[in-house]
Amino acid sequence: MADSIKSEEGYSIKPQKYTPALDTSEWPLLLKNYDKLHVRTGHYTPVTHGCSPLKREIVDYIKYGIINLDKPANPSSHEVVAWVRRILEVEKTGHSGTLDPKVTGCLIVCIDRATRLVKSQQSAGKEYVCVVRFHEALESAKKFTQGLETLTGALFQRPPLISAVKRQLRIRTVHETKMIEYDENRHLGLFWVSCEAGTYIRTLCVHLGLILGVGAHMQELRRVRSGALSENDDIVTMHDILDAKWVHKNTKDETYLRRAIRPLESLLTTYKRIVVKDSAVNAICYGAKLMIPGLLRYEDGIELNEEVVLMTTKGEAIALGIALMTTAVMSSVDHGVVAKIKRVIMERDTYPRAWGLGPKAMEKKKLISEGKLDKYGRVNDNTPTSWKTSFVDLSASAISTKDGPSTSSAAVPHANLVPTAPVASTQSTEDQEEGTILTKKRKIDDDSDIPTGESKPKKEKKAKKVKIKETSTEKKMSDDEKDIEAEESSEKHIKKKLKKEKKSDISEQETATTVEGEKKEKKKKSKEKKDKKEKKSKSS
């Protein structure tokens, strides 16, 4: 650093030993205490793409935004979230854990891209303030505090009857409890509780009544903190959101809406940070792992398999990742995977594509365009020897290991690069060469003996071919026999059908004759009756 000093001649620069440190304690969101991060390198090319989370355009600001909402009593959490979606006219909204209809307090509503953080926020810790009603008077307020102290740590809980969840016994941890107030006249108690996600405070109140021997139930509940945000962190009501949207729509004033909505980075301030180069950002958005060359800065105390947040130099969250290196390893290695991606937050192509721009990749593209490599970048007849010897085709080596050892040098161009120990052979090199020439010049019939110059894998292949031919002839024989059997069975089947048809015809004829006979008898009887009636009428 240097100081500019005004002298008689003009301004001069004076060298200085001391370099003043940056004070980043008041920088926003993920950039807070940026100067305290470990520096791997300071060399990178900044890009004009992207911007600070607080300075995004209003459309992107809403898209990457969250709302710390004060949920009103009576409507359900899903109803409230649906109303927010309709008011803000966005595609998606989600929330950080359901609250019962009568419960009020913090409900984090995530908008569009921020919905990717919903899962992580649902599993985060919660804090509540609860009013409990005891069925009988307690001896003193001290009993109340003692009862609360016993209900800390891992507790067995079964969801209450009202809940829509399966009533299954589960273990939930209560981290801390604190008595705020106790009213002896009305048998009411007020307490604060910090607990794991999924803890039922209603069940906790019932258990408290059982422990104190008087019985109790929950009267009122308010969530004070959900994950990283509490009710003191710019909490807003439904009316605030409605008014902010109306002001923006009619007056084009963004300030009210920007106050109501916060950037999603405010949920990630508790995570350990890893700063990524601008050239590596888009590759991570497409799902690539973060490698050491893309690392700029990293936080102290990162452990293996710990969940971390990958961020840009401008303070934008790129993705949530799982660390595959500790802080100590990151500072000591030159290559390797730093973190794998768990959930991508940033939209693709926000930053420019920067993969395939290295010297090797550019040379490969040039050879493909000239026709010296095929369209997949594989070696062909026109490939220069310098490329064959220097470039290691991992896909080709994988194929060659599957097929077995190959004799040609072109199949494995990098074989000479790796020094190997000499292998003891039973034959001389000349005999091996003759054997290979023989196999190339003349074709050998399958029935003839295999020459001695051939290698074991070739012998095995030819033996397999012979076996395959034998099995195919056997199959053909068996197929002919099957056809004959099928014909015989079909003839028998036809004969049986004819017999059945004859029998059915005979039975039909018999039934027809019997029906006709019955009809004739009925007609005769009816005629006889008519004749008798006529005779009687005449006689009368």
From TrEMBL:
Keywords: Isomerase. Pfam families: DKCLD, PUA, TruB_C_2, TruB_N. One of its GO terms (biological process) is snRNA pseudouridine synthesis. It catalyses: uridine in 5S rRNA = pseudouridine in 5S rRNA; uridine in snRNA = pseudouridine in snRNA; a uridine in mRNA = a pseudouridine in mRNA. GO terms for cellular component: box H/ACA snoRNP complex. Residues 458-467, 521-540 have a biased composition (Basic residues). Residues 468-479 have a biased composition (Basic and acidic residues). This is H/ACA ribonucleoprotein complex subunit CBF5. It comes from Rhizophagus clarus. The lineage of its organism: Eukaryota, Fungi, Fungi incertae sedis, Mucoromycota, Glomeromycotina.
